[in-house]
Amino acid sequence: MAAALAVGLALAGCAGGPASDGAGDGATTAQVRIAAAADLKFALEEVVVLLQERHPEVRITTTYGSSGTFLSQISNGAPFDVFLSADLAYPRQLVEEGLADEEDVFPYAVGRLVLWAGDGGGLDPADGLPALASDEVRRVAIANPAHAPYGVAAVEALRSAGVLDEVEGKLVYGENVAQAAEFVQSGNADAGIVALSLVRSDPLRGIGAWAEVPLDAYPRLDQGGVVLRSARDPGAAALVRDAILSPDGADVLARYGFSLPGATDEG
Fold this sequence. Notes:
By secondary structure, this protein is an alpha/beta fold. The protein folds into 2 domains: 145 residues, Periplasmic binding protein-like II (D-Maltodextrin-Binding Protein, domain 2), CATH 3.40.190; 106 residues, D-Maltodextrin-Binding Protein, domain 2 (3-Layer(aba) Sandwich). It has 10 helices and 11 strands. Helix 2 crosses helix 9 and helix 3 packs parallel to helix 4. Belongs to the bacterial solute-binding protein ModA family.
């Protein structure tokens, strides 16, 4: 199982996700290329399955990674049709750059942080972030705050808990939040501050223990997407947006621990 999980999380940053190949049946008439924040790795795959049950003629290609990296790539001409960011500010920045229209920006979820300790660790996440200052904790995985919104949130949570100075030297950075979770799962980190959506996924459910980080400890993770002006088939790209915002899509996101935009968060 561990090997399978490592492969699954390694897909964050690579092309993946369910897709109809359309080979030999002439069914595929459109392709949509999605750049998606790594915290969506498992939830989005379920939404794509729902979409393709209704629109088998559309082929979906999904690349997972850090939102800041995608922002830079799209600004430099990377060929994506839909951008699903862990920070709503990034799609809005693409509007400012003339690469998307304001009416095509949509909030889709609010993310949450957890403190997660893998199997065999001596940390009890219920003790909260101050427990990371213990000498028994040697390495703490987070997403790289230079370009990952979950990394920024993790740093601010440590600052809010008053232990950033003590823990900073223990931090190991994943390229994105899924890779940070992989560090914990593999034992390369004793604990991690990662996305709730990942520890609720089938591959990670039941591994170690986790506890939510208080919502008032870090900036609200308002997540949003945008259909880009460069989309090869804007109508097909809009189907992705509609699937995520549909009641079925919202149900999937809720199962992975996301709050819906506009909902009142409870700590």
